Amino acid sequence: MVHPALLFIHGMYMNGVSWEPWTKAAATRGFVSAAPSWPFHDGEPADLRANVPAGLGALTFGDVVTHFKRIIDGLSERPVLIGHSIGGLVVQKLVNDGYASAGVSISSAPPQGVTSFEPVFLKANFPHVNPLAGSKPVLMTPERFHFTFCNVMSREASDAAFESYVVPESRNVPRSTLTKQAHVDFGKPHVPLLMIAGDTDHLTPARMVEANANRYAQPVDFAKFANRSHFICNQDGWEEVAEFVFDWIDGLSDSPAATRP
After folding, report:
1. Could you read off the pLDDT of 162-218 as tens digits, one per residue?
2. Within a 13 Å sphere around the CA of 230, how many CA atoms are in the beta-carbon half?
3. Is the dihedral angle over the CA atoms 59, 63, 64, 68 positive or is it negative?
4. Global pTM?
5. What is 6-259's CATH number?
6. Domain boundaries along the sequence of the chain
7. Handedness of CA 59, 205, 220, 211 (dihedral sign)
C-alpha cells in the first residue's frame, strides 16, 4: 500500500516535540511524516520556558495558518493533516482552503461561531483569552496544566508531562480564533475529515466537538474516546487513538469519500 504523507500540527502550549510518539508510530505503519513547530515554538520545551522567544506575544491564529500554508506549498502533494486542539482548528481551516488531501482534527478548538457554555469549558478557556491580560506571552502553571489538559491523570504524571512538553504561548492565538481568522465555510465541499473528541476533555468538551462536526453540510466522521482528557494524544492509551487514525487514513483509498473535492 502506498501511504500519503502526513503533516502533524500541534496546539497551544506545545511544539513539534509533542508529536514524536506519533511520528515514530506512523513510521512503523509505513507513513512518511513531519511535525513542524509553529513560529516562535522551535526548540526544547525546557529551553523555551527558560528563554521566551521575542515576538511570541504577537503571534495570531492567522499567522499559524499562513505558516502551514507556506510549508504545504513547498511539498510535492497535498498531505493528510493531523492536528490537535488549536492545531485541529488549523486543520479545519486548511481543509476549507484546499490545502489537504484529508484531515484529522483531534480535540479541536472551535471555529468562529461555534462555542460551549459548559462551566468547565469557560473555566478552562477564559485565562487564555482574558482581554485584560495584555499581549505578554503566557506560561501555564503545572496546576493549571493538570486541570486544563491532564484532568484524568495523576498530578505526578501531569507534572512529568509539563516538564517534557509545555512551552510558553501567545494569548493572541486563541483570542484571534474569535474573529474571521478562524472562519470556516461549513457549506463548502471538502476532502474526508475525521473529528475526534475525548469524553472528559475540559478545554474542548466532546459535545462541542461533535456539534462542530455536525455543522458541516457534507458528512464528517466523528469518534469519541472514553476516559480521555485534552492530553489525548500523549496520555496513557494514546496508541489506541493513533492506530484508529492511521486505520482511518488507510481506509480512505477504498472509500468513495476519498474522491470528494
Report:
1. 999 999 999 999 999 999 999 999 999 999 999 999 999 999 999 999 999 999 999
2. 29
3. negative
4. 0.94
5. 3.40.50.1820
6. 6-259
7. negative
